[in-house]
Amino acid sequence: MAPKKPPIAAVPDSAAHPHAHLFQVRHPEWAAQATIYEVNLRNYTLEGTFRAFEAHLPRLAAMGISIVWLMPIHPIGEVERKGSLGSQYAVRDYFGVNPEFGTLDDLRHLVQTAHDLGLRVLLDWVANHTSWDNPLVTEHPDWYQHDAQGNLVPPVADWTDVVAFDYTHPELRRYMTDALLYWVREADIDGYRCDVAGLVPTDFWDEARVELDAAKPLFMLAEWDELYPSGGLSWEEFNGDTKLLEKAFNMSFGLRLHYLLDHIAEGKQPLQAIDEYLAAERAKYPPSVYLMHFISNHDVNSWDGTEYERLGPLALPFAVLTVLLPGMPLLYSGQEAALDRRLAFFDKDTIDWQDFPLQDFYTRLLQLKLRHPALHNGDTASHFQRLPSSDDLYGFWRHKEGQAVLCVINRAATPQMLPLPTEVAGTWTDIFNDTTLTLAASEGLLVPGHGWRVIQKS
Description:
By secondary structure, this protein is an alpha/beta fold. The protein has 14 helices and 18 strands.
């Protein structure tokens, strides 16, 4: 049975949502306008250090970035290591700093510099597993999962460089909570991105969040998506829970939308399938819940391919969507450089920045996100309305208290005309060329082939 078409009307407020009472996490005020940026520290600069990356912070702040997410900064395991440098997700010491990156004082300096620029810093946290040579393996072997023969096991078969924890042990939970608190107290970080958060018991995260917030109110991001069951794109029979976002996490990954955009680019799904996604999201979550949207991150780039491999000529139009649809946008290291190669995951592979050819593109989008009241994350008073579109056009406008942003993308290689409803009549400004245009209901908006239009009401 085909899913019902979503309403074109405004998004309902959180109070009207049948499950609104479940979601107890309160977002910090600054997060309402935030965009998050993932830093692949190893490959960001030739030096691959905290200090070398720190020089980029003013540029990122000027782009409109609010949150900097550092991939894991801990020493990396050597036993069963993959590649020459190993996976940053094979943690050997939760209380240590990878000497490749610098020292604890270097990290502190980076965090303070970020704070001075109005940026927040998240550390990537791997609570589900460790490297084989983490001292906990020999000091507390009972904290780990074992097979029927008593052997340590990885959490996923081909993650052969790590072994999985067993969270039935209260002592492990105490240790991990203390480790999380350490970096808040010692480096003044602002939160965590938690690796494969759904593989760790939710009640651990719930309990840890209480202690963390007592030390400092944090922003917590879960690498998980409860709208994305078993890697599939069908949701008619899915009845997953929402527990990660109820008490522990401010935001989770929008994996479902990410893979849907890939399928649209491949011709496996129509553009209008985005409506079905948005309807499923709204049925599950009140609009106050944050989901993170993206076309690339470290896993996607290294294992699935660059946005240009996967999305072809739709890479930039879909980037526009991930910034302007409801949700928090993510930018990955190198996207503003039009990075067109897969970065090595286990070896040094420095990004070629090429004078940042897409920095202006992203700056215009992210600064619009930062300043415009209709684009705030989780705002139940902001309205999202679809525009009458076609098989090749996908358009919407978001408006609040007389201020509005209109967005439309074109999947076709040839220019297309978007018919305009009466409600959008008025004077607008194109954010990409700064021109003023007057729209009338009897007119249309021309969208270039494989292109986009983003205009704000003046």
